[in-house]
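User: Please run a holo structure prediction.
Assistant: Happy to. Please share the sequence and the ligand.
User: Here you go; the ligand is magnesium ion.
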Amino acid sequence: MAEQGGLIDGGGLDQDTIAAIATPAGKGGVAIIRLSGGLSWSIAQSLCGRALQARTPALCTFKHQNDIIDQGLVLLFKGPHSFTGEDVAELHCHGGVVITSMLLDACLAMGARMARPGEFSERAFMNNKLDLAQAEGLADLIDAPTRQAARQAAASLRGAFSEAVNTLGNALLQIRIYIEAAIDFPEEEVDFLSDEGIRGQLSDTLTALTELIANAQQGALMSKAAKIVLTGKPNVGKSSLLNQLARDQIAIVTDVPGTTRDVIKQAINLGGLILEFADTAGIREASDIIELEGIQRARKALDTADLIIRVIDDSEKMEGETEQLPTGVPVIHVLNKIDLSNRPAGAQPASGVTTMAVSAATGAGISALESAILAALGLSTDTGITPFSARERHVSILQATHAILKEGIAQFNQTGAGEILAEDLRRAHDTLGEITGVVGVDALLGEIFSSFCIGK
Ligand SMILES: Nc1nc2c(ncn2[C@@H]2O[C@H](COP(=O)(O)OP(=O)(O)OP(=O)(O)O)[C@@H](O)[C@H]2O)c(=O)[nH]1
Ligand SMILES: [Mg+2]
């Protein structure tokens, strides 16, 4: 008994010890079970039947209640020097579905409980090992659809985005401190109201914030595959265009109007960026129940599109009335079948909507269309690449911060009331803090971390 007691590590029993299979489900050479919390060392050590050292891999025979489960490596980390900041144990076993679940069950039998999705990262956040933007960077790294997205997410995980946010936050704080000092110590006769320095700093900060918003927007687009939806009247060549962009025969093409019913999704690599294209039935009048369902699905796809490509048959002069498209989503008009209409390929004189002439049959104008697609999404393969990944959540917080600051500056310029400006700066700073999680995000945490996978 005394010997067993010696195996138990004293650290942090106030929190549950959590366990999960950290590697993907399925067969593999190696799988890893991760444990975090006060019992993790004692569970690992009793599975191995001996005491182990931190950060020293040990080859062990995993045994539970005299039942030999597997042989593998154990790696222990002592909190706070671990991913979660707590005592952590990693059990490296063979990657079989049954082996891993037997080992996990043994951990649960010894007092651990199953980790919820994202709970390891959540604990890392709670123990200040990662801020919120870094934790999100970690999730985005795992989900990265392209190498570029992976590089950006890795930068966010290392703290590049958080650093940019913190620099801005500090600038807001410094200005506020100055203004509050000037209010509190009027006898110092710091005439901050006429201080050009303050106005300059305010406008510099606003400019930096605008730049950060642009970068975060680009970073957010890169970290998920943008959705591009093809729509247009029957037979205009939507499916032919998808096939041409994919350089493969993905969708059925016939001269029968109403060929496509289901939404056909295809990931396509444009200059190293993965974009998700969806070919649809388009939106039109129909009576056939299959077509109606197809149109319903097209509508749904259009509602979540990042970019809509409306295909028009350039050889047909009767375009008729145009279908209703969701507002606020960029649209490119594609004049197709120019091999029949004899129109020159490429960008057409602007009429408010970007219009590109192509032939899905011959491939004419396709590369110009590809560039127009990237440009419409605010993505570019040759101009500067965003130094970090970001999310929609971050973009809207930055925009809210921008709105508060802009209003604060306008108010200050009008009334010269320093107290109100100081309060606006405090609000802007607090809002910004929601990105890294230094302020008021408790209600959000569950939502953010539950979208992570188990074992992360
Ligand atoms: N000449 C010529 N024919 C084309 C071109 N693009 C498509 N077509 C033809 O137009 C017809 C319809 O093409 P699809 O790609 O099936 O058109 P769609 O818009 O997907 O049609 P639905 O799925 O029925 O709505 C087929 O016979 C194609 O071969 C083009 O650029 N030039
Ligand atoms: Mg089609």
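The radius of gyration is 29 Å.
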